[in-house]
Amino acid sequence: MRGKSTYKFYRNAKKLINRAHKTKRKKGLDKIPYRKKIYKLYTDIGDNKGKLSNFISYAKQAQIKFDSISPNTNNIMMNQIKNRKKYVEKRLGIKIHTKIRTRDI
After folding, report:
1. How many Å from the N-terminal Cα to the C-terminal Cα in the chain?
2. Which candidate, 11, 19, 33, 102, has a CA 20 to 30 Å from the CA of 74?
3. Backbone angles phi, psi at 100, to 5 degrees
4. What is the rounded CA–CA span in Å between residue 32 and residue 55?
5. Using CA atoms, how far apart are residues 21 and 55, in angstroms rounded to an integer?
6. CA–CA separation, 60 vs 20, rounded Å?
7. DSSP structure class, residue 71
């Protein structure tokens, strides 16, 4: 994948999370709004079992196709987005309880 693609993924995640924090402060909410959208788009929670629904599932499918053509690669595409959970957790300020399957990485 191009570096621009992963940069855009992280940049859009940051924008949505910042908007959620701003809305939370403005409206005086207890929980962060847009949680479902954030989880669906930027974590493995939103991965729809291999369908091309978010960038993570796109990267997984691209890695599978890339491995079928060139089998001696070791998760080049997934390495580009391997810190996605840490990034989202750090930005949200909460711990997301997701279980990443080792065969998906």
Report:
1. 15
2. 11
3. -85, 125
4. 22
5. 23
6. 27
7. T
Q: Residue 73 in contact with residue 29, Cβ under 8 Å?
A: no
- In angstroms, the CA 56 to CA 54 distance is 6
* Position 76, amino acid: I
Q: Which DSSP string do the residues of the chain spell out, in sequence order?
A: --HHHHHHHHHHHHHHHHHHHHHHHHHT-SS-TTHHHHHHHHSGGG--TTSS-SHHHHHHHHHHHHHHH-TT---HHHHHTTTHHHHHHHHHTS-------GGG-
| 62: its two tokens | 């691209």
Which secondary-structure segment (H or E) carries 77? helix 76-80
- State the pLDDT at residue 92: 87
Return averaged pLDDT per consecutive 10 residues of the chain, 105 residues in all.
88 94 94 88 71 79 87 83 86 72 53
Q: What is the DSSP letter of 29?
A: -
